[in-house]
């Protein structure tokens, strides 16, 4: 491996959240020292993930199958859908073990500053999903509750209010996370206990 190869690898790793140039250098050094047990398996896993991982056409989760494992799980409560901003938030809630319903990933939040409106998010798909009647008795039961598990930021709250307005005439119960989520907090950085408390203490909007 040439110096150019090393620097390129460091630059690529440094783009990842939470790493930076210094952490990337340490990671690269460890991989170079252990090519057979670390670098080559990692390269193979990255290539396989790049080829096989895709977004679920139902909820937006990432998986190697479509629909994803969550959407295919018939043991989950299909009458509730937990709405999250990103896949990382879905994974965070799953780690808590406090929720056994379905999910919907928006792909972000409404933000006038960033030019991100409802068309850039999967809000329309969410509305269709929760209001579409079942075509046969064999299908899953109709959604009865939508849980808004959005970050307690200005953009997160704006998005929540918009979804509440869109669902106002449907008769579907809309609740949101309550205790445990600090103002300005983001779900992916909260501990499992905080998320569990927040889900159990959700309240109507």
What does this structure look like?
The protein has 205 residues and is an alpha/beta fold. The chain folds into two domains: 3-52, RecR Domain 1 (Helicase, Ruva Protein, domain 3, Orthogonal Bundle), CATH 1.10.8.420; 62-204, Dna Topoisomerase Vi A Subunit, Chain: A, domain 2 (3-Layer(aba) Sandwich). Helices cover 44% and strands 13% of the residues. The chain has helices at residues 3-14, 20-33, 35-52, 69-72, 87-96, 123-131, 154-167, 192-200; strands at 54-55, 62-63, 77-84, 101-105, 145-148, 173-176, 203-204. It is elongated and about 65 Å long.
Task: Give me some keywords for this one.
two-stranded antiparallel sheet, Dna Topoisomerase Vi A Subunit, Chain: A, domain 2, 205 residues, alpha/beta, 7 strands, 5-stranded mixed β-sheet, Helicase, Ruva Protein, domain 3
CATH class of the largest domain: Alpha Beta
DSSP summary, beta strand count:
7
- Name of the CATH architecture of the largest domain: 3-Layer(aba) Sandwich
Measured distance between first and last alpha carbons: 57 Å
Rg over CA atoms, rounded to whole Å, is 20 Å
Major sheet description: 5 strands, mixed
Segments where pLDDT lies below 50 for 5+ residues? Answer: none
- Tally of helical runs: 8
Q: What fraction strand?
A: 5-15%
On the 0 to 100 scale, the average pLDDT is 89
What is the CATH fold-level name of the largest domain?
A: Dna Topoisomerase Vi A Subunit, Chain: A, domain 2
Q: What is the total domain count? A: 2
The share of residues in helices is: 40-55%
**H/E element sequence:** HHHEEHEHEHEHEHE
Provide the spatial order of strands within the biggest beta sheet.
4-3-5-6-7
The geometry reads as: elongated
Structural class of the secondary elements?
Answer: alpha/beta
